[in-house]
Each structure stands twice: as C-alpha cells, then as structure tokens.
Amino acid sequence: MPYALDAELLEVVAKMRAAGAGMRQPTARDDWTTLRTRGDEGMAAAEAALPALESVSRTDHHTISHDGAEVLLRWYAPEGHDVFGAGPAVIYLHGGGMVAGSVALFDRWVAAYVAESGVPLLAVDYRRAPDHPHPTPVEDSYAGLAWLAVNAEALGADASRIALMGDSAGGGLAAATALLARDRGLPVAKQILIYPMLDDRTTEPDPALVPFAFFTYDENYTGWHALLGEAVGGPDVPGYAAPARAQDLTGLAPAYIEVGELDIFRDETIEYALRLAATGISVELHVHPGCPHGFDRLAPQADVARRSRADRLRALTSF
C-alpha cells in the first residue's frame, strides 16, 4: 500500500487548506535567507500559540565558546525546584535546519517540557549557519554542556545525570555534541534525539516521500551547505558535523530516538539507531506511521503526537 498521512494529521492539513492558510511553500535550493525568514516566522507563530507557563522560571546565563564568543544559555526550572537537591538536567538544542531558530523562538516549547516533566532544561542559543559554519554550532552546544557540568551543583542538578536533547537540526547537534563530549571526557547520561538531522548526504529525493516532505530535500541541502560549505556531500565531512559520518559510535550514552515514517530523515535515523545498538548501547527507537517531519508541532492534539509526547516525558525522567 502507498504511504498516507495519519488520519488526524490529514484532517488538520485539510482544515488549514480549507481556511486558506495553505502549507508553507518549500524554498529553492541554497536560498538560506528565505529558509531562515520563513522558518523563524513559522516558529514565532507556533510559539505565540503556546501558553506562557509563567510557573516555569527562566534565568539567562552566558558562557564562552571555542572562539571566545559569548553564548546565551537559558535555564528553565520547574515550580518548586529544589536547588539543594541533585536531580537530572537536560541540555536542549532547538531545531531550524541549521539556519533558523533560537532560544527565544522555542521558549514556551521548552518551558512546556519542564512543566510537564519536572526536569530542568538548559537551552543553548547556538549560533547559526551560514554566518557561523561548522564547527561553531556544535562547539557552542558543547560549551553549554560544559557550563552546566561545572554549575550543576549550584543549580540543584546532578552533574552525572545530564542528558542532551534536540529536535531536527538540534537533534543532530545533540548527537554531535555527545560524540564531542565522549572524545573530550565529559560524561553524558542520555541522548534524546527527535527526528534528528544527521546526514548531509540525504539530498537525493525518494519519490515515495516527496509528497510528504514538509522539510524538503532541497531545504536539507540548503541547511547542510550553509553549515559545511563546499565540503557538503564529500568525503571529508567529520562526525562532529554530521553524526552519521562518525566511524566509531562506541562509548556513547543510551539513546531515545524517534522519527516519522514520512520524514526524509527516517532512513538515516533508523540506521544511526541500529549502529548505536550494534555497539551495545541501549536504544529506544520509535518510527511513527503516517507522520512527516515536525508532526507534533503540526497537530499537537493528535493521538500520535500525544503518544510521542508521553514517551519523550518518560525519556526525560528515566535516567
């Protein structure tokens, strides 16, 4: 049988089209400025639709990255968080195809994870490509992880129970930061990778997925080209930039990984999960039928999005 959108997602898409809202038009290959503009606008609209959750406290900090630049870190703590305790904490890296997104555009999204899980998160405002190509985004992410490890006790967190979490480009950066942390001797307790962007070689369209590609193959190329320049797709891309390129996945943290069946990242995500498992790393993998990229933001009340949310919250509290 041919692929089809989940029935509830299809209903949401049909209602959007009937209302004249349409769907976001894909951008041309290498047009990163339009991809950023449209991405940021879409994220701002999604952010505005979420509750503010003022019970979750936000505190801004800063750290210094590899090149001496200052990077914003935003600490989200649940109501009643005990700074004299020592529980888990999570680094959160936002999506945006490597060129879009920010901590501000994901503020309420992150606060919701904190409110629902009771686990504090530290969002890293990593710098975006192409203004800041590899290795800046992953080095900024690592700088946030290192800062949290040093300051964990003062924040009421256990430095041995820090996880990395991200969605889309942020999921890829979370996986890359886990590799960097392993090689630099900084412990990571868990990886939570939500439809992660892992492989710069995913640019040739699969005809079966093209009709459902809410993040397209051309847009994927645009993001990777912005990050990697002329190295994109070639033989010399390091695993710290595109984790699917990493030759050695041993010694990494246990992973929770999910992706949609209709996501262009599906195959690279499944392959990465299998490679992790083949090294003896514990992996929980979910492939959601009928779901494209970003399905949970498209229809957060759909059954599949609710199931996914429950699994993510369990992953956030089980390490």
Structure, described:
The chain is 37% helix and 17% strand. It has 319 residues and is an alpha/beta fold. The protein has one domain (7-316): Rossmann fold, CATH 3.40.50.1820. An 8-stranded mixed beta sheet has the order 1-2-4-3-5-6-7-8, with helices on both faces. Strand 6 (190-194), helix 6 (217-228) and strand 7 form a beta-alpha-beta unit. The longest helix has 20 residues, at 136-155. It is globular, with a radius of gyration of 18 Å.
Low-confidence stretches: none
The rounded Rg comes to: 18 Å
Largest sheet report: 8 strands, mixed
* Shape, principal axes of CA atoms: globular
Can you write the helix and strand succession as a string?
HHEEEHEHEHEHEHEHH
Q: How many strands?
A: 8
* Spatial arrangement of strands, main beta sheet: 1-2-4-3-5-6-7-8
Q: CATH class, please?
A: Alpha Beta
C-alpha end-to-end distance: 39 Å
- Helix and strand content put the structural class at alpha/beta
